[in-house]
Each structure stands twice: as C-alpha cells, then as structure tokens.
Amino acid sequence: MIDPLHQFEIQKIFDLKIFNIDIPFTNSSLFMSLTVFCSAILFIMGTHKKLMIPSRMQMLVESLYGFIRELIQDNIGPEGMKYFSLVLSVFLFVLFGNLLGMIPYGFTITSHIIVTFCLAFMVFLIVVGVGLKEHGFHFFSLFLPQGAPLLMAPLLIPIEVLSFFSRPISLSVRLFANMMAGHTILKVFAGFTVALGVFGIAPLLVNAALMSLEFLVAILQAYVFTILTCLYLKDAIHLH
Q1: Is residue 169 domain-resident?
Q2: What is the pTM of this model?
Q3: pLDDT, tens digit, 9 for 90 and up, residues 100-119
Q4: Residues 6 or more apart from 97 whose CB is under 8 A from it?
Q5: How many CB atoms sit inside 10 A of residue 139's CB?
Q6: How many CB atoms lie under 10 A from the CB of residue 123?
C-alpha cells in the first residue's frame, strides 16, 4: 500500500560541516536551493538581452514585473514601491516552491509548516519594522481602530493584538494546509490507479483533473500569500 504521506518525509542527502557543526543537507534544502536558483535564472535569462522586440522569456519577466507593480500600487500605493523587491521575492519563492513540488519525485517545501511559518514570520517582522520606522511608537495605535470610543478600548485592544500576532500563523497554515492536502489527495488517487491496473482508468482521469487543479492552487496560493503581504505592509505604512 502506497503511503500518501511518504512524499513529505525529509531525507538527508549528505552532511555539511561548518565550524565543527554538522548540518545535514536534505531534500528540503535541495529544493529550497532550486527555488532560489530558478527565480534567479528566470530574471537573468529574461533581462540579459534587452531587446526592442522582446523574446518570450523577456516578455514573461516584464509581465511578472508589471503584475507585481500593479499589485503593490493597487493595495499599498506608490509608497509601497520601495518594497517591490521584497514582494517579488516572496511571490517567486512561494510560486517556485509550489511548482517544483509538482514534478514527479520532487519535494514540496511549502508542504512543511516550518518553512511556511519561517517565511510568514519573516514577513511579519519586516512589517513591524516598517511600521516602527514610519510611525515610531504611534504604530501601536493600529491596535485601536480609528473612531472607536475609548470606553471600548479594553475590549478592542486585546482583540486587535491577538488578530495582529496571529497573522504569521494564519498566513503559514493557509499555504501549508493547501499544499499538503492537495498532494496527499493526488498520491491517494495515484495509488488507486496503480492498484487497479487496467481498471484504473477512472482514477487516472480523476488524477489528471486533480493535477490540473493542483497547478491552479499552486499559483493561486502564491498570489494569496503575496497579496496578504501587501495588505500587511499597507497597514504598517498607512495604519488605519
């Protein structure tokens, strides 16, 4: 019986020794490196020749640039363009992390809560840093909605604080849960296809449909993670 959770196991490839500390290089480390490599190669290949009539790769990079710029301007405003590199990097990391996991025998780094939480927590710390840089201690007025009566402060402030500090949890769990659930279902139906042999046509068709859906989810989750990053930055820059 095929174990649908076996695909999420972290396996050591080799050991790295840095300052007498053993650091195992795992399949998760490999695919995180591939994610960064693919993101870099995409932009290197798309921008090394700036043609008047762009190549397909240049058109892809320019479209991606325009998409992220529009996302920032629509959700943050012109002030958000200084954080363009952050938003683009987050989008590409999540997107390639999701898509590389769709390759047979690949590994989905975003199906591990530790990876998605670290990414979400990094975004959270940057948002707090931006808020303190832009507004100083006035940033904490975010926890009391504008126009709310002071009598409601003892009730509203704990709710807003809890909501604010739960952001990295909700952001990470949303991505992790969607990717893990989708890949588990794919593996289950793949097991049915193999087990039924020549009678596995129906599960095979379902698996093909699920594969298409999972590609859509992979792209959609990268978009959702990125747009929430923009909205959190908007709160930090504009407060209420």
Answers
A1: yes
A2: 0.89
A3: 988 888 899 999 999 999 99
A4: 31, 32, 35, 108, 109, 110, 115
A5: 19
A6: 23
